[in-house]
Amino acid sequence: MTVRVAVIGAGIMGADHARIVSEELAGADLQVVCDVSEASARRVAEENSAQDVSTDPVAAIRRKDVDAVLIASPDATHASLTLEAIKLGKPVLCEKPLALTSEDCLAVIEAECAIGRQFVQVGFMRRFDPSYVDMKDTLCAGKIGGAIMMHNFHRNVEAPAGFSGLMAITNSAPHEFDAVRYVLDAEIVSISAFEPKRCTSGACNPVVLVMETSEGQLITVEVNNNAAYGYDVRAELVGKEGAVSLGGLAAVRVDRSLSSSVAYAADWRPRFHEAYRLQNKAWIASITTGVPAAGAANAWDGYCATAIAEAGARSLESGEKTRVDLAERSALYDPAGTAA
Amino acid sequence: MTVRVAVIGAGIMGADHARIVSEELAGADLQVVCDVSEASARRVAEENSAQDVSTDPVAAIRRKDVDAVLIASPDATHASLTLEAIKLGKPVLCEKPLALTSEDCLAVIEAECAIGRQFVQVGFMRRFDPSYVDMKDTLCAGKIGGAIMMHNFHRNVEAPAGFSGLMAITNSAPHEFDAVRYVLDAEIVSISAFEPKRCTSGACNPVVLVMETSEGQLITVEVNNNAAYGYDVRAELVGKEGAVSLGGLAAVRVDRSLSSSVAYAADWRPRFHEAYRLQNKAWIASITTGVPAAGAANAWDGYCATAIAEAGARSLESGEKTRVDLAERSALYDPAGTAA
Amino acid sequence: MTVRVAVIGAGIMGADHARIVSEELAGADLQVVCDVSEASARRVAEENSAQDVSTDPVAAIRRKDVDAVLIASPDATHASLTLEAIKLGKPVLCEKPLALTSEDCLAVIEAECAIGRQFVQVGFMRRFDPSYVDMKDTLCAGKIGGAIMMHNFHRNVEAPAGFSGLMAITNSAPHEFDAVRYVLDAEIVSISAFEPKRCTSGACNPVVLVMETSEGQLITVEVNNNAAYGYDVRAELVGKEGAVSLGGLAAVRVDRSLSSSVAYAADWRPRFHEAYRLQNKAWIASITTGVPAAGAANAWDGYCATAIAEAGARSLESGEKTRVDLAERSALYDPAGTAA
Amino acid sequence: MTVRVAVIGAGIMGADHARIVSEELAGADLQVVCDVSEASARRVAEENSAQDVSTDPVAAIRRKDVDAVLIASPDATHASLTLEAIKLGKPVLCEKPLALTSEDCLAVIEAECAIGRQFVQVGFMRRFDPSYVDMKDTLCAGKIGGAIMMHNFHRNVEAPAGFSGLMAITNSAPHEFDAVRYVLDAEIVSISAFEPKRCTSGACNPVVLVMETSEGQLITVEVNNNAAYGYDVRAELVGKEGAVSLGGLAAVRVDRSLSSSVAYAADWRPRFHEAYRLQNKAWIASITTGVPAAGAANAWDGYCATAIAEAGARSLESGEKTRVDLAERSALYDPAGTAA
Ligand SMILES: [Mg+2]
Ligand SMILES: [Mg+2]
Ligand SMILES: [Mg+2]
Ligand SMILES: [Mg+2]
């Protein structure tokens, strides 16, 4: 069986997903590429030998020859397009965020719960990154004792003009929130946001977040979207008997000019290209088997990331430690399995 | 267009290739798995949803529903099966070695030259390993000046009983010979083999090889098939202005028990799984386009690796520096392109 | 001129200082070793060929044949012994802390200011550690742009029974406070303390501190006195254009048992032995020249570290961000030089 | 007791030794600095507060107020000055080489044997480098099994004009020969020298040496005096169960401009400054105790390094593997202890 995929959105993320579906996956066909810009849709479709193009996402989702939907359109459209797919019973891989607000995330959850089945995988691809998986495996194998702290660093070369500390929390930090929840299997219950005063003007706006989990662990996150020196994601998990860190993954080391160096990429693609490939492969397999991909982020995970970001935004404004109040989790999202 | 592949050989390499064809590649179908052991063929076929099984490699190659042949059967069968495929005009990906002797390699070359077209890609997968590719790119970009030396280290955990220094040269070192030729775009013209006397008995038999290239460069290779500590492949290319080394690729670093450590794998698969995937992807693409995969090893490269190993074996026996005498290279293998 | 030194305290720190004075320094003599335990004093004196022993620290300080005093006695005695030495006009190297309370630190400052000269160097030895010095030099050379964040990790194998998060702040964190102040040339103006709830009982009590500086920078500190895996001090300074981290300093790397590892020491001595040697060498030189050692911690620095720790302790109790209110700094401690 | 030292030679090495004697050692006085250039002698003497200067090395050695002699004058003078000191019964620390020829080394050995006591320590300072010491300790502790191979890399930024592959063997490689003999406690019995033909003209002249030891081990050495990228000394010792490598010793790591880098020094001094200090400290201690410094190179070691270099030079000329024929070792140099 071949899964026929509609990719919604032909921007940088959509183009990359179209390429993965077309070139990197067994058992998937790139059926249609959809974008409000027909030119964009057509260019990405041609580059990746898609069957067809569309400028109407709802129509694309509804096509009879589309089995599954990969949503990589602008963030504001994620929730409504996801709901459309659920209504048709079609599986969705939705780029993060699942929705702009936790309320809209809950609407997706309600739609799944009404049917009693998960349709949505959220594109927190780090859950498929071999180094995060290895970190979690190291913890679960008992090699570092029980987890007590986790330190996370998220650095981009440069943010768009006007990107603020607030946006660092709502746009970038969710990847960190989800990675922490994935590795620790714990909820985040409070968040305290800090911003260096030195950088309030202009292009410089890192934030430091300190979080507590339901298991009594402490988490720190630095989000630095103007780190300048390179795309750099780091994490260290500290247990009672040891610690585990994401490794260095440089292909080569170069010695020249009194320096021994390894390269940073300019953006996330080289760092996480394997994670995206494995994520999308697991998604296709889950459609074939009918069982959600092990370890993947579901709608509940998408909701949590957004809800934590909302609490972080309030903390940044108030300067106070802020509780993360979550809705009650439906049994549909119980880790043990899916509901009937 | 989907390429229907016969995988010949269902041992450890054949099984891995069957999995890659079935699970990791777009545009390829695993049509038949062939092994002299029907049970092995059937097991690998089932694990990878192959269409059919066979115990007769020649029959498998001749099947109408087979477009291309991936040879991973015992080394002694490589040349004759490759010739069979060439006779039928079917493209071949042949695991190394292309043949047990340089004479048999030349027979394959003659078969291709008689037709005037390349059919054979040899499975020197390191040419698709991102770190070797990056090393070559670093050289070609002029970052280290002209190449003058290359140091190579090939270490396995443990060799089968009876594995000797001679076998290290004929079985393991060819990967190094080909990596050097790939990175440097130069021929190896002499070889001197050394063996530590301490280890002539029992399971311990590393060799050190010193080679000269057609461009006046010096190459060293250590092959240590009983290195015990892990599977470890290293290389450093030294230029007039700098040096470039293969990077460390550990997913995580673990701190415990007064030690900070990264893991070695027990065999080559984790180290080179991406290389195999990209190699096979490039092979499938070359079938679709009709153009040999850029950077891939062809029959000439397969011949050279075997011829160098033969000279190395003679050097180990004589204790003398030994010339590598190669046949004349047909224009079919000119780097610039393929003959008409 | 040879400086005749009295080492007060023959515990683990005092013994090490006695060894350094005796064996590692040109221009210094170990004149007397003093400890309330005569046996301890005698053992350390004999091991290091001291001229004499004493059990009375005040008498030892007053000896005519003692030119300078190195205080490594219990923390509660630091301030009064330092004041005794100042009264006599003898230079002091006082192990941290300068005093148990900021009030007592201020008494030392007042004594110096009354005379109008610095007599005291505080044993914040990291200011002489080549890696911290290199970090500061990298910042000052403009290689990473203006500093905006600094992350610090202080990990010990195991704390004594009963060691608490509070003690982590008052006993261990001052090394971090001083390192931050040294590297950044900035004051710490607020501190927020966090403790993982998971570890409130028994032997496990890390703390995470978030601090703001007078220059608007954000600082994080993890103090983890039961890190189990080894003695490990890390720091990363993040600037607007790059970052600089303390390097790994392993003498060797060992490959065995499917692992590539470097060793951690069990305590601080191997990590900082060079820092102590250079610190003490600089102290002896400052006595000879009469000019305080460049970069060394003075009484004001000792006061600041203690005052920050007091604010941190209050924050840990209140759960609130807490201001660090410092006394006014006398011109005697102006960075430009010493007062007349 | 204070050892009064004459430093013979006020060039780059002599100036550094004068500084170490003056500033870094307890129990030593810099009595006289001697150089044929009075200006040089005077400059170094003043910079390091020496008591006196001299332009006559023999007279300096004979001075009543000189207890011990540190020879850092031009290589051609080493043997005769060492003999002069032995004649007077004064201990010597002689920079490598002990003599320009193995014959002259043997003359020093004969002088010691005639008296029946060792007077000479040769300045192979790597025996005091913590990383080489740690490598040897790792081997002796059985952590890597019996040693079977050792790989050594010696790289300088730039050699003086006219420096040849021959000079790489006679001037630079002796440090490697001695390091191998120190770590392995084995003799080198054969040597094969290789030179990349690409670099025979001009400033580029690396050599690769392959050696066999008395214990049946294989050794490789690359000497690359025009490596351009930095001063870089590497070594890896391969045992039957594992391997140990010299560690990276960078004080800091800098992240900027899409690169993560550590610095190389431009010459040997930062890399080995601790080795020189510890070497000279051990030398002073050996004078006080009358027992040769443990692990230090003696006259026999100096002879061996020169004899191996001579064999290497012959191998480079002949292109053949060349035996290293050593004189018989006097019992005075038995590892177990010194003769009566
Ligand atoms: Mg994503
Ligand atoms: Mg292969
Ligand atoms: Mg201290
Ligand atoms: Mg030397």
From TrEMBL, chains A, B, C, D:
Keywords: Oxidoreductase
Coiled-coil boundaries: none
Gene3D superfamilies xrefs: Dihydrodipicolinate Reductase, domain 2, NAD(P)-binding Rossmann-like Domain
UniProt signal peptide: none
Domain of life: Bacteria
Enzyme class, first EC level, given as a word: oxidoreductase
Domain GFO/IDH/MocA-like oxidoreductase: 134-244
Name of the protein in question: Inositol 2-dehydrogenase/D-chiro-inositol 3-dehydrogenase
Family, similarity comment: Belongs to the Gfo/Idh/MocA family.
InterPro entries: Gfo/Idh/MocA-like_OxRdtase_N (IPR000683), GFO_IDH_MocA-like_dom (IPR055170), NAD(P)-bd_dom_sf (IPR036291)
Molecular function terms, GO-annotated: inositol 2-dehydrogenase (NAD+) activity; nucleotide binding
EC numbers for this chain: 1.1.1.18
Boundaries of every Gfo/Idh/MocA-like oxidoreductase N-terminal domain copy: 3-123
